[in-house]
Amino acid sequence: MASTIRVPKPNGAAGEASHMTASEAKNGFGRVLDRVAREGAVVITKHDRPDAVILSIDAYQRLTASKAPDVDVLAAQFDALYERLQQPDTAQKIEAVFALEPAALARVAVRRAVQASPNKQAAAKRVRRARG
After folding, report:
1. Which fold has domain 6-64?
2. Residue 21: what pLDDT?
3. What is the pTM of this model?
4. Where in the chain is the domain with CATH 3.40.1620.10?
């Protein structure tokens, strides 16, 4: 059985997409378009595995719409960062970081990434992958 794929529905909420085989889609493309217009999206499967998704133009536009960041939120984040940088010991900490050897800096970065991630194994894997 094909896996569940959630897609945007015409009402704006996300829901489970209906599925259609590639053969059904090829032989009845008009029915595919009717279903997409009605439901917002259709998942096309090959051998019971999702292979493609056909979206309505409304669903596509909702997905690709620019989500410009809120200026007030950005200003608040900047102000908080600026305040942290004004602490008396910040300059010393920054100088200490820049004085580290690359290997030592990498160890600190990995340790912090693992501590900050709820999935520590995935964080370590991402760091290793980024190193090349």
Report:
1. YefM-like fold (3.40.1620)
2. 93
3. 0.47
4. 6-64
